[in-house]
Amino acid sequence: MFVKTGDKVKVIAGSEKGKEGTVLSVNVKKNRVVVKGVNMIKKATKPSAANANGGVVETEGSIHASNVKVIAKAESNKD
């Protein structure tokens, strides 16, 4: 896959087109990436030890790797 964790990418297709962010994780089997601040989704959570009240949590959703373009490689990925 051409995208690695830590790379700075720009979304080139879809509803989030034009947004930029850093890759947080990569799913090679499904060919999807999670980009910081892009494709935010809301999830309802039950009360737990970490979150006593539960409620709605906003987190990043994955997008297909073909919808992103690498702007800058991560420092450790410059091989």
From TrEMBL:
Presence of the UniProt keyword Methyltransferase in the record: no
KW Ribonucleoprotein (keyword) present: yes
SMART domains (alphabetical): KOW
InterPro entries listed in its UniProt record: KOW (IPR005824), Rib_uL2_dom2 (IPR014722), Ribosomal_uL24 (IPR003256), Ribosomal_uL24_C (IPR057264), Ribosomal_uL24_CS (IPR005825), Ribosomal_uL24_KOW (IPR041988), Translation_prot_SH3-like_sf (IPR008991)
Domain KOW: 2-29
CDD domains registered for this protein in UniProt: KOW_RPL26
Any GO MF annotation of the entry: rRNA binding
Pfam families xrefs: KOW, ribosomal_L24
GO biological process: translation
One Gene Ontology cellular component: ribonucleoprotein complex
SUPFAM superfamilies for the chain: Translation proteins SH3-like domain
Gene3D superfamilies, A to Z: 2.30.30.30
Keywords associated with the record: Ribonucleoprotein, Ribosomal protein, RNA-binding, rRNA-binding
Function noted in UniProt: One of the proteins that surrounds the polypeptide exit tunnel on the outside of the subunit. One of two assembly initiator proteins, it binds directly to the 5'-end of the 23S rRNA, where it nucleates assembly of the 50S subunit.
Record's subunit section: Part of the 50S ribosomal subunit.
Family of the protein in this entry: Belongs to the universal ribosomal protein uL24 family.
Name under which the protein is recorded: Large ribosomal subunit protein uL24
Lineage: Bacteria, Bacillati, Bacillota, Bacilli, Lactobacillales
